[in-house]
Each structure stands twice: as structure tokens, then as C-alpha cells.
Specification:
By secondary structure, the chain is an alpha/beta fold. The protein has a single domain, classed as NAD(P)-binding Rossmann-like Domain (Rossmann fold). Helices cover 44% and strands 13% of the residues. The strands form two sheets. It has a seven-stranded parallel beta sheet, sandwiched between helices. A two-stranded parallel ribbon has the order 7-8. Helix 1 links the parallel strand 1 and strand 2. The N and C termini lie far apart (41 Å).
């Protein structure tokens, strides 16, 4: 799709971080923007900011762990603008994992992480793809994954990494199936980076739904040292990527019809190669 003006984009997790940057980037191309987020206050602020920039935007409170809530999002988007041309399944959460072992993480930690990061995307696909196929229009589905899990797994983040590995696999399957079903509907896998993205994902505990809460409260990451540990360890050089950089790369990737939207091709190549070599040679993986 090369012409975006007058068409409609839906972005989950759209009130902040990468999601908001995507809303803003595509909105500047003249698209109608449907901002979906679980947090009403942040959603209202995001929509007001977009409107003040001349972008035609609406907000829909959405809990992506709920199929009914995502179906309501689709109904509001189609009811407001007639069609949806770009869907960004972007909502994601980070569980505080860096100081806990995989066997010490609670069932609710796992259920919450997977319900948002994996089932949130599955619910988006189920709610929107049949309608997009029925419309027979050019369109794009963009699923947000991570280098962490999508390519290799950081040992400090078992829930996050494994959930993003699932996102990568299900998006490859979606690509294969839609390639046979429709030449007009394209699929993309977005890898934010190359460094940890400057977002609020590690403060997502504030929106943890009641059914996923534990008796023992786990606070969010609060310090730079915690942020470092959630990446490659406290001793690495710590840098941040800004959400606007991710949104620019995403827009370019959509225009170029790239499935893999991973603009940092030189970074992390050695780790990807090492993992692939381990598989191909049946050798034990290196421990980070």
C-alpha cells in the first residue's frame, strides 16, 4: 500500500511508547487513527495530542486479553471509519523477572504475560483479519515482537522472551496462510530496537488486571540497574532507542513490503548466527 491518506489504522497499546509513535507516524500520512489502550487517562491524553497535531483520531478502551473487548474495538473502528487498512497488534507488557528464577515465577505471572503478549495478538487477528479479507482491500497487519525472544532469548526474561518467540512463530504462520489466501493483505513482524526502547513497558504492572494479580505484590522496575539487568546484564553499555525511530522504521518497512522489519541489520548479527549455528551443528547453545 503506497497511498495512506484517508485510510484507517488501529493500534493496540497505542497510548504510549512505540504504539503512540506508530499512531503519530501513520496519522501524519493522513490516516484516521484508532488508538486502543487499557488505560483511560493515558488514552485520552494520546488522542488529544494527536488531534492537536491535526490527526483524525479516536480512542477505544481495550483490554487485549479479552476477545470480547477486541471485538468491540473492531466494531468501533469499522463503525467510525467504514474499513480498517492497517492493524498494529502492538500491546505488550513486561513482568519483573530479572531478579527471579524461571521456577520462582508464579502462574499469574505467566498467564498475564502470555495473555497480553500472545493472546492479545491472537485476539486482534481473530477480530480484524476476517473483516479485512472480506473487504478485499489492500491492507497490512503488523505484529510487534522483540529481538529478545524473536531472535534469541535473554536468560533474565523467561516469560517475555518466550512470549515474543511465540509472536514470531504465529506471525510467520499468518504470513504463510495469508499469502495463499490474499495477495492484498500483507503481514509484517516489527522488531523494535536496536537497543532497549525508551517506553513504559517495564511500568506495565500498574495495568495488571485483577485476575492476574498475586497475593504477594511485585513492584515495577524502578532503577536503571534493573533496566540494564532486563537486557544483557548490568555490565553492558546501556543505550536507548526512541519510539519515533521504531515508528519510522516500521513505516518504511510497510512501504517496502518487508516481512522482517528489523532495521538494525549489523547489530546482534553475531548472536543470531551463533544460535543458528548451534541448531545446524547440533551443538549446545552458548550461555549468556
Amino acid at each position: 500500500m503506497q497511498e495512506f491518506s484517508g485510510k484507517t489504522i488501529v493500534v493496540t497499546g497505542g497510548a504510549s511508547g512505540v504504539g503512540f509513535a506508530l499512531c503519530n507516524r501513520f496519522g501524519k500520512e493522513g490516516m484516521n487513527v484508532v488508538v486502543a489502550d487499557i488505560e483511560q487517562k493515558a488514552l485520552d491524553k494520546a488522542v488529544d495530542t494527536l488531534k492537536s497535531s491535526g490527526i483524525n483520531a479516536i480512542g477505544v478502551v481495550t483490554d487485549v486479553t479479552s476477545a470480547a473487548s477486541v471485538e468491540n474495538l473492531a466494531a468501533k473502528a469499522y463503525g467510525s471509519f467504514g474499513n480498517v487498512h492497517v492493524l498494529c497488534n502492538n500491546a505488550g507488557v513486561g513482568v519483573k523477572e530479572a531478579d527471579r528464577k524461571i521456577w520462582a515465577l508464579s502462574a499469574n505471572d505467566w498467564n498475564w504475560g502470555y495473555s497480553v503478549n500472545v493472546m492479545g495478538i491472537a485476539n486482534g487477528i481473530r477480530a480484524f483479519v476476517p473483516k479485512m479479507l472480506a473487504a478485499g482491500l489492500e491492507g497490512h497487519i503488523i505484529n510487534t515482537t522483540s529481538f529478545n525472544g524473536g531472535c534469541i532469548a535473554f536468560p533474565t526474561t523467561p516469560i517475555y522472551a518466550s512470549s515474543k518467540a511465540a509472536v514470531t512463530s504465529l506471525t510467520e504462520v499468518l504470513y504463510a496462510q495469508l499469502s495463499k489466501e490474499s495477495s492484498k493483505l500483507k503481514v509484517h513482524l516489527l522488531f523494535p530496537g536496536p537497543h532497549m526502547v525508551n517506553t513504559q513497558i517495564l511500568a506495565s504492572q500498574r495495568n495488571r488486571q485483577a485476575e492476574f494479580q498475586d497475593d504477594v505484590k511485585v513492584d515495577d522496575y524502578m532503577t536503571m540497574e534493573d533496566l540494564k539487568k532486563s537486557a544483557l546484564g548490568a555490565n553492558v553499555e546501556f543505550q536507548l532507542t526512541e519510539p519515533v525511530e521504531v515508528a519510522d522504521a516500521c513505516f518504511d518497512g510497510v512501504c517496502n513490503n518487508n516481512f522482517w522489519i528489523r532495521p538494525y541489520l549489523d547489530s546482534h548479527q553475531a548472536m543470531i548466527t551463533a544460535r543458528c549455528d548451534s541448531v545446524l551443528t547440533n551443538s549446545n547453545p552458548a550461555v549468556m
